[in-house]
Design brief:
Elements lengths: L2 E5 L2 E14 L12 H19 L6 E7 L5 E8 L2 H16 L5 E5 L14 E7 L2 E4 L9 E4 L7 H9 L6 E11 L1 H18 L2 E4 L7 E4 L3 H16 L2 E12 L5 H11 L1 E4 L6 H6 L30 E2 L1 H5 L17 E2 L36
Parallel strand pairs: 2-15
Antiparallel strand pairs: 1-2, 2-4, 2-5, 3-4, 3-9, 6-12, 6-13, 7-8, 9-12, 10-11, 12-14
Helix pairs in contact: 4-5
């Protein structure tokens, strides 16, 4: 279950879990009496709690969630200076990995034998946050442009449906590495929020000249959105978080329609490396040595200042659950993974819960079926 080997000057343990099946939520107690979208939302919350527990594993761990035809599971790598300590810690972390949410069934083992090896060839791209930029129009802004990077967000029904129906050979890889967010970076996010909050409110400005006087300034709508986003980021990215990468791997370039659907589903942008950087991008699927934060790599945006660069790959457990493949069989059917009934003690029969309008034919008012003495 756990493979331990010496790599360089450190010991490394490799392990994983295969998703054997998804549990039919239409029969699972606590889910069966909800509408399908509510079941998906409940499963998403459980997934976030599961990923949050993995985030407590420490900075020596790395995880990757795999999704796609024939690829469903999670891999883990743990490193340390001593073999005994690495083996002991790997067993503890593997227990957390196998403690999947109730809507999944997992078993020890890698999703595929080469799941922890970078592909030697193929097409690769990353789904990244959009960098939204707008020109600064207020004279008191103190900067040439405004910018913000909203996190990736998705509707469970849309995103899970897309990943479940990925074409053959296409794989989603969500890499997660627990990291400690420096206090200075959290304070910087809070400072951005405060500055944008000032620009979002009406104000006064004086040019400083003898005859210039003071004039009223309208609040900037972009600044209002940016203030809310940076305030939220400062609250959530404190202490431990994840460094996250969302990658798509395929034998060849994805169809434009699929690229557009993926980008719209998470409100992100699919970034493809230049040919000289493709080998490094393939290696980045299984290692975090490149591209590093704050470097002018193939995923960097020139508008993002180096001090804000870590935000490109920063995520908490809720962010990670927006894109990680922890499939939920809300209606009892999945294309890429078998669906099994829940354990007998968790199984319930609640009748049929319909999703969408239902047409009932026949006379619902007349006849004798409403009489107490009618035949039953």
């Amino acid at each position: 279950m756990i493979e331990v080997a010496r790599r360089g000057f450190r010991w490394e343990a490799r392990f994983g879990a295969r998703f054997a099946s998804a549990v039919d939520l239409s029969e699972l107690a606590g889910y069966s009496d909800r509408l399908p979208d509510a079941r998906r939302a409940g499963a998403r919350r459980e997934s976030a709690a599961y990923l949050g527990a993995l985030g407590q594993a420490g900075p020596d761990c790395e995880f990757a969630l795999h999704g796609g035809p024939g690829w469903s599971g999670i891999t883990g790598v743990l490193r340390g200076p001593y073999r005994e300590g690495v083996e002991r810690d790997a067993e503890r972390v593997l227990e957390r990995v196998l403690a999947v949410p109730e809507h999944l069934v997992a078993e020890p083992g890698l999703p595929e034998p080469d799941a922890l090896e970078p592909p030697r060839a193929g097409w690769v791209a990353e789904l990244r946050r959009r960098c939204l930029v707008a020109p600064a129009t207020r004279p008191d802004a103190g900067k040439r442009y405004y910018l913000t990077m909203p996190p990736l967000v998705s509707e469970p029904r849309v995103w899970d449906g897309l990943v479940d129906r990925l074409p053959e050979g296409v794989r989603l890889v969500v890499g997660l590495r627990p990291v400690r967010v420096e206090h200075e970076f959290t304070a910087r996010l809070r400072s951005y929020a405060e500055q944008y909050a000032v620009l979002a409110a009406p104000g006064e400005f004086s040019g400083g000249g003898m005859y210039s006087g003071r004039r009223m300034l309208a609040g900037e709508p972009f600044a209002a959105d940016a203030a809310a986003l940076f305030r939220d980021a400062a609250e959530r990215y404190a202490g431990w978080a994840f460094q996250a990468r969302v990658s798509l791997v395929a034998p060849g370039r994805l169809a434009p329609a699929l690229v557009s659907a993926l980008e719209q589903a998470v409100r992100g942008v699919l970034v493809e490396p230049t040919p000289p950087d493709r080998a490094a991008a393939l290696r980045a699927l299984t290692t975090w040595d490149a591209p590093a934060w704050g470097t002018p790599s193939w995923g960097a945006d020139p508008a993002v200042p180096p001090a804000l660069a870590p935000l490109r790959e920063l995520a908490d457990a809720v962010d990670a659950a927006q894109v990680a493949w922890l499939p939920a069989a809300a209606t009892g059917v999945l294309r890429s993974l078998p669906v099994t009934p829940p354990p007998p003690e968790r199984r319930t029969a609640r009748g049929v819960v319909f999703e969408g309008p239902v047409t009932v034919a026949g006379d619902l008012v007349g006849g004798d079926k409403h009489r107490w003495d009618a035949p039953r």
